[in-house]
Amino acid sequence: MFKIIAAVIRRDLKLAMRRQADIVSAVFFFIIVVSLFPLGIGPEPDLLRKLAPGVLWVAALLATMLSLPRLFADDHRDGTLEQLALAPHPLGLVVTGKVIAHWLVSGLPLALIAPVLGLQFDLSAEALVVLTGAILLGTPALSGIGAIGAALTLGLRGGGVLLSLLVLPLYIPVLIFGAGAVDATVSGLGGEGHLSLLAALTFASLGFAPWASAAALKIALE
Amino acid sequence: MLEADNLECVRGERRLFAGLGFRLEAGELLYLQGKNGAGKTSLLRMLIGLLPPEAGEIRWKGQTIKSDEFRADLCYLGHLNAIKEELTPLENLLAAARLADEDLSEDDAIDALEQVGLAGREDLACKYLSQGQKRRVALARLVKEKRPLWILDEPFVALDVAAVEWLAGIISCHLQRGGLAVMTTHQLVDIPAGTVRELRLS
Amino acid sequence: MKDRFNLYRFASPATFYPLAGAMIPYFVAVSAVFGLAGLYLGMLVAPTDFQQGEGYRIIFIHVPASWMSMFIYLVMAGWAAIGLAFNTRLSGMMAQALAPTGALMAFLSLWTGALWGKPMWGAWWVWDARLTSELILLFLYIGYMALTAAIDDQRRADKAGGLLLLVGVVNVPIIYFSVKWWNTLHQGSSVNLTKSSMAETMLWGMLLMAMCFWMYSIAVALMRVRTIMLERERHTDWVKAELAGDQQ
């Protein structure tokens, strides 16, 4: 079982390494969006510090949304998705591999850059640690849930916007607990509760989402 | 070994065919023919298990085709080449074999690429190859292919005379080894050896 | 075996079309009766609220609309499950027929919530748990309608929409719980539209209005599903006969 997941991850990572521009542009999108907020709201430090968790999380959601269409669309276009569906393994395992690979090239870079951006908002060191941990913990769920949307909208016109419309409402719990963890830390209440709920969401979505995505892919491949 | 029973196909809101059935044994080749839009590709997609038929059943070795075991015996080549442009021909072949749980050594892969005339280009990313060369990378899969059931959608399209002969030889060897093949094609190619059946969709 | 055969017979659009047509007037009539009774109780009989005056009466629309928006989503998910399990055509059509009405209920709930909120709290919108969840439910409806509209192949649209509904229905409790958590943590204003001890007439009024909306939804969904059937099955003989008959 793990062999096929590892094979898929290896393949997807190799492909991502040859198309580094995609990863880098997603990270820069994240940075730009985060920088837009102070420009729109004003540079007052207290206000920015309060808004930081929400702003960083919303930007992370949007950056993930941008990279989701790539998850299946490229493979669909050149026929390799069909071959993956014809592999002698459950499609759910193949999707699990793709989701993990997607997280490694989209969620993980965001988590690494987030603390640097958090400094722009004057977050405390403790808050930065919790922020990074929360984004690390929550972005796999974003990749998983996003995979369902990407599979449902495979090959459709207006793909990207439609995908956002479907997936963003489902992202709301991750947003609430992810930003809430940092808020709770800042206000001294401790973010453990939020983080454990976030972990639960991630595990649940990684268990459930690949199978829902596989079902959606089969519908799209008919 | 491959049986189709009473198959019905509805695409969009039109019924393409109904009551379709056939039986294919080891060493046999099935030619699917019919005008464009008659349902050849739909039938192929039913046989590979990606399109559920509106009615009817398909069995492989007496068992359902909705299983990992069936897909382990199946090799499908469609219109699209199913190769990643960023990878080299060698990497493509090795990755495809790995995903299909097949053992393909690097030497065998290089040999296969040599046979399709891509010697010396194994390490060039596929995006730098011509269309014809990309198609040959896709066909190279068949050279070392050990799986018994081949389902090929218009494999001869855009091949020159020598390539057509070569591919016919590959398919013929496969049939001689006891394999089965289902093919759609607009051009009837003479495949030496093996019983040839024809199914015409109208 | 015999029972199952009968059920499948009703699942055929050709059989269901005239049946639906016959049922519609009854549902409309029952809906009107419930509506009149509910409005009578709500507008005239129920006592004036001690704190909120006459304006509170909008809850007789707001609460039933909220209930219906949630209920319709569950029914749609039920049809989705049946459609995916048994591959019946009618299930997908029913889900698509219900969607606009469900979205309307959600929208109505939000709008009446705002109309209620303005005189009471001075704001057109408050981010309380219920209203925010209702807003998210509206997004889920719109997402479903957008997805099914974007797919040309109706069978694929039914299946993809169905899968989306099942994913949504699993997520709705999670979303509601997380929004509630978010709201209590941030100590937002709590728009308490239903008081803990309600006068009995108020409860009856809301129940009657809920029944009214329910019957109305069924009637409208049946009308819509007939149109969908005509559109999708336009190549079949029974539809051609139906349309020819209408033109005579």
Would you mind describing this structure in some detail?
The complex is a heterotrimer of chains A (222), B (202) and C (248). Chain A contains 10 helices and no strands. Chain A is an all-alpha fold and 222 residues long. Chain A has one domain. In chain A, helix 3 packs parallel to helix 8, helix 3 runs antiparallel to helix 9 and helix 6 crosses helix 8. The longest helix of chain A has 29 residues. By secondary structure, chain B is α/β, with parallel strands linked by helices. Chain B folds into 2 domains: 127 residues, P-loop containing nucleotide triphosphate hydrolases (Rossmann fold); 64 residues, no CATH class. In chain B, 32% of the residues lie in helices and 28% in strands. In chain B, the strands form 2 sheets. In chain B, strands 6-7-8-3-9 form a 5-stranded parallel beta sheet, with helices on both faces. In chain B, helix 3 packs across helix 4 and helix 3 packs across helix 5. Chain C has 248 residues and is mainly α. Chain C has one domain. In chain C, helix 4 packs parallel to helix 6.
Record keyword descriptors for this entry:
B: about 200 residues; alpha/beta; Rossmann fold; 2 domains; five-stranded parallel sheet; four-stranded antiparallel sheet; globular; C: mainly alpha; about 80% helix
Offer a concise description of the structure.
The complex is a heterotrimer of chains A (222), B (202) and C (248). Chain A has 222 residues and is mainly α.
Task: Count helical runs of chain B.
Answer: 6
Helix percentage of chain A? over 70%
Order of helices and strands of chain A: HHHHHHHHHH
| Global shape of chain B | globular
CATH homologous superfamily title of the largest domain in chain B = P-loop containing nucleotide triphosphate hydrolases
Which architecture of the largest domain in chain B does the CATH hierarchy give at level 2? Answer: 3-Layer(aba) Sandwich
Number of strands of chain A: 0
Q: How would you classify the quaternary structure?
A: heterotrimer
Strand proportion of chain B: 25-35%
**Overall 3D geometry of chain A?**
elongated
